[in-house]
Design a protein that fits this description.
Blueprint (H helix, E strand, L loop, with lengths): L2 H7 L1 E5 L8 E5 L6 E10 L3 E7 L2 E6 L2 E4 L6 H6 L13 E6 L3 E7 L4 E5 L3 E15 L2 H9 L4 E3 H23 L3 H4 L3 H20 L1 E12 L2 H16 L2 H15 L6 H18 L20 E2 L1 H8 L3 H9 L6 E3 L2 E5 H9 L1
Parallel strand pairs: 1-3
Antiparallel strand pairs: 2-7, 2-11, 3-6, 4-5, 4-7, 8-10, 9-10, 10-12, 13-15, 14-15
Helix pairs in contact: 4-6, 9-12, 10-11
Length: 348
């Protein structure tokens, strides 16, 4: 081997990288301590960008194409190396290939609940997960803040870090968007699109990335909040609570109550029958007063007596008592209801 062949063997005349993976974000070209010669060919394929780094400083950036490394093509390196008369000798520099294609199907999720302020429910703890697609739009910033000088930086090395950063930004963006918890489940696609303008400026400024799509697949709340949401939905389906309670009472009468409350059940039943007859224009037997209570039956009833007699939950009876629709007197810590008050309520 002659001297010229030895010298040529110590110089790099072609720089290229063929990505045979689907998960490499950046790749540092292995120079094997060789220098890049004047006129070397730099090959950059589609979905790639090349960044030169000289002594820790960013040099020239190249997009897709075939480039000849000469003075005109590397003005920043020429200035950094203080070549007064242009690039005419071999030089050493780190060459980084950065993949700019879209990386799809990356998963994200909240390890801990996010505290949300909701107008309907107050402070709510929510968990969320989904997927996102991203790409590198600023190679210099990405290399500086994320990849560093890593020889072969892959998605899996970045996954946990990116996921935590995305979740943090997602939590802030969700709080800023002020989307009610009741609306989140029905607006997953809108939520992702609404959050993109909030997330992208942050990840672009900090990491040189762009989130192409952000998909929210699920947002869940604690079981007690789910029960509250279900209860609210049930109330909306019921409509008029007063009519619903009356319906429940009528259903309870059909099923029959206990023998201890039979007199009350009969009295209320008679009141309902009189009301139906009046509405249909039929004459009522006797007067507008309900039947007299049976002998030995107490005039004052507890909410449990009324509920047991009518076959409805005691909570329904307490609801109409607390709303003031059913007159009751509180004695100590308990309510007592006159039979006549029950009759008057059913006659409304």
């Amino acid at each position: 081997m002659g001297l010229m062949d030895f010298i040529k063997g110590e110089l790099i005349d072609v720089i290229e990288w063929t990505d045979d993976s689907r998960d490499t974000l950046s790749y540092r070209f292995p120079d094997e301590d060789k220098a890049i010669k004047n006129g070397a060919q730099l090959i950059v394929r589609e979905s790639q960008q090349v960044q030169f780094v000289y002594l820790g400083e960013f040099g020239d950036t190249f997009g897709p194409g075939k480039h000849t490394l000469a003075t005109d093509n590397i003005p920043i390196l020429t200035r950094l190396k203080s070549w007064k008369y242009g690039f005419n000798s071999p030089f050493k520099a780190d060459v980084y290939y950065v993949t700019t294609r879209l990386f799809t199907g990356n998963k994200w999720g909240t390890a801990n609940p996010i505290m949300m302020r909701d107008d309907d429910l107050g402070i709510v703890r929510a968990r969320a997960f989904g997927t996102f697609d991203f790409k590198i739009v600023d190679p210099k910033l990405f290399l500086k803040e994320v990849a560093g000088s890593d020889q072969n930086f892959r998605v899996d090395e970045f996954a946990d870090t990116m996921r935590s950063r995305i979740v943090s930004i997602f939590a802030d963006a969700l709080a800023s968007a002020k989307i009610p918890v009741f609306d989140v489940a029905s607006r997953y696609s809108e939520l992702g699109e609404a959050l993109l303008p909030l997330i992208n400026p942050v990840v672009a400024a900090k990491y040189g990335l762009q989130i192409a799509s952000f998909i929210v697949e699920n947002v869940s709340v604690p079981p007690e909040v789910e029960q509250a949401i279900d209860k609210r939905s049930s109330m909306a389906a019921v409509g008029n609570l007063n009519d619903y309670v009356k319906f429940q009472m009528a259903q309870g009468m059909e099923k029959g109550g206990s023998s201890g409350g039979m007199a009350t059940e009969l009295a209320v039943g008679l009141s309902i029958a009189q009301q139906i007859m009046q509405q249909q224009g039929m004459p009522t037997a006797g007067a507008a007063r309900p039947a007299a209570p049976a002998a030995g039956t107490a005039e004052l009833l507890s909410p449990a007596d009324v509920a047991q007699a009518l076959g409805v939950p005691e909570s329904d009876v307490m609801t109409i008592i607390e709303s003031g629709e059913l007159a009751a007197k509180k004695i100590g810590s308990s309510y007592r209801i006159k039979r006549s008050a029950v009759d008057e309520y059913m006659a409304k």
